[in-house]
Design brief:
Length: 141
């Protein structure tokens, strides 16, 4: 398979994942919620920088998540002007449910694969993701 064929397959995968997004309005904010849950807390400006998006976009998403009770602002003891964002229990519940839903979907898609095929795929996909992160291949795209 050529690099161009691989890129086409990955674009198709991206479209499939985007179509499979959860129905609730907060689905658009799941990457932000996951980032805060896995690596937070972060300030809104830090989130914008890491995600490479406009700070106003992050501000709108943060406001919606705060209104929904999925994240909250905390006082920063070192800088009274800063408000680190953290995921609430409700936010973790939404994120956990979405991760379980996606795991079930992927499990269904791989149901016909042997355990060896699944393990090989997981290993190769893990290597691919690590190399994408290491090289910054998708940064700014």
């Amino acid at each position: 398979m050529s690099d161009a064929d691989l890129a086409d397959q990955l674009l198709t995968l991206t479209r499939l994942v985007q179509r499979a997004e959860a129905a609730p309005a907060e689905a658009m904010c799941l990457p932000l919620l996951a980032m805060l849950a896995d690596d937070g807390p972060f300030r809104a400006g830090e989130i914008a920088a890491v995600l490479g998006v406009n700070p106003s976009t992050v501000s709108r998403q943060v406001a919606g998540l705060v209104r929904s009770g999925l994240i909250e602002r905390r006082a920063d003891p070192e800088d009274g002007r800063a408000s680190p964002l953290v995921v609430t229990a409700a936010g973790r519940g939404i994120l956990d449910a979405e991760r379980q839903r996606r795991a079930a979907q992927f499990g269904d898609a791989l149901a016909g694969w042997s355990p060896d095929e699944r393990a090989r795929f997981a290993d190769l996909l893990g290597c691919f993701v690590r190399d994408l992160q290491r090289t910054g291949a998708l940064h700014g795209s």
